[in-house]
Amino acid sequence: MMKNDNIEDLFRGINLDHSEPKEGHRERFLEKLNSGNASAKQKTKVRSLWAPFIGVAAALALVFFLAGNILNSGALDKSGELASVSPEMKQTQEFYTSLIENELKEIQEINSPETSAIVKDALKQMEKLDAEYEKLKTDLLNSGKDNRVIHAMINNFQQRIDLLNNVLSQIEEIRSIKNQNHENNII
């Protein structure tokens, strides 16, 4: 009963006398209500005119986007190259292939009769690594771009570069030994 007494005490000091709204209030209210509906109807009418066009434009944009992605990814995915995985892997592949090409050119330029056996052996090993890379490309297609296959492909590139660097250092050693022997024979 105490709770009820407190509530009654709260409302005792407040004047709850409600006055009637001014004359014409109802008509003004209905007029405002109707004018708001008219502008809302006008906005709805404008929206309803553009809605089909916007819908068609959005659908076309979506179709072009999806078709472009499917065509681009399909073309890259069928190659099985490292570049088909991501833009970063494309850069990695381009870096390694250009490095390998440059080192092969350098080896061919400094190749001599004394080093031809080393170069032939290196080229045979390069063919084996190329064949292994071709298998890895197939594995990449079949595995759905498995990280282990990607790592193996990068490792294959690194093995080729290491092989070519070893051949270059062996050729340089042979050339320096030849120059030393030649200098000793002159004296």
UniProtKB/TrEMBL annotation:
Residue ranges of coiled coil: 119-174
Transmembrane parts of this sequence: 49-71
Keywords attached to this entry: Coiled coil, Membrane, Transmembrane, Transmembrane helix
Protein name as catalogued: DUF4179 domain-containing protein
